[in-house]
Write a structure and sequence with these properties.
Layout lengths: L4 E5 L6 H15 L3 E5 L2 H7 L6 H4 L1 H18 L14 H10 L5 H13 L8 H10 L4 H8 L2 H16 L7 E4 L2 E4 L4 H10 L1
Parallel strand pairs: 1-2
Antiparallel strand pairs: 1-3, 3-4
Helix pairs in contact: 1-6, 1-10, 2-9, 5-6, 5-8, 5-9, 6-7, 7-8
Length: 198
């Protein structure tokens, strides 16, 4: 039986977009179970002494990243539109995802948030964008958003982000199999292969 994968993702992460969109089909084909783990990169970067995304701090790296993501999405036939703000504030989306991933519509919510940001040019830091995603999924947005902002759910996201830091996660997407860390969209297939061997 294959080992499970913990999939750590951040809604502001460009490379998490294609990873999220192709993960389920590849994991199912490989016979590997995946636990989706939303977290926040801001505190991770802060612990590294960074006050912004490395893609903003190092412009050449940022230029490369945008073209690379455009190429990746083109190859996957995923729509892609560079958002006007980067990185966006994924805090509310992550809080909702923590609740949603316990429900049948949780993964659909996550994929829809990525589409809203990287395919439709929306700003996921605006509550109305998250509300629209919830309504399109036929959820009671007021109830879900209220639960997402509850103190216990906020604490859960903080704890999950702290766990990511303890586990040595420094970027997204990251895939963890046991103690093995695989970082980046292009590490999805090697992570699945490792899980099958474990």
């Amino acid at each position: 039986m294959a080992a499970p994968i913990d999939f750590w993702f951040e809604f502001a992460s460009t490379y998490s977009y294609p990873a999220v969109m192709r993960l389920d089909a590849l994991a199912e084909a490989a016979g590997v179970s995946v636990r989706w783990r939303p977290f926040l990169l801001g505190p991770i970067f802060k612990a590294q002494g960074l006050d912004n995304s490395p893609f903003n701090l190092f412009p050449l790296k940022g230029q490369y990243m945008w073209r690379d993501v455009e190429r990746i999405c083109g190859a996957l036939e995923l729509p892609f539109a560079r958002p006007g703000i980067f990185p966006q504030n994924g805090l509310l989306a992550a809080r909702v995802a923590l609740l949603a991933l316990d429900q049948p519509w949780g993964k659909d919510f996550c994929r829809a948030v990525y589409r809203a940001q990287f395919a439709e040019g929306g700003n996921i830091g605006e509550p109305r964008v998250i509300r629209d995603v919830l309504l399109k999924l036929h959820q009671d947005a007021d109830v879900v958003l209220g639960q997402a902002e509850a103190d216990d759910n906020k604490a859960k996201l903080r704890a999950q982000t702290e766990e990511a830091l303890r586990r040595g996660i420094f970027g997204a997407p990251s895939f963890v199999v046991g103690e093995e860390l695989f970082w980046g969209n292009d590490r999805l297939e090697p992570a699945l292969a490792w899980a099958k061997r474990s």
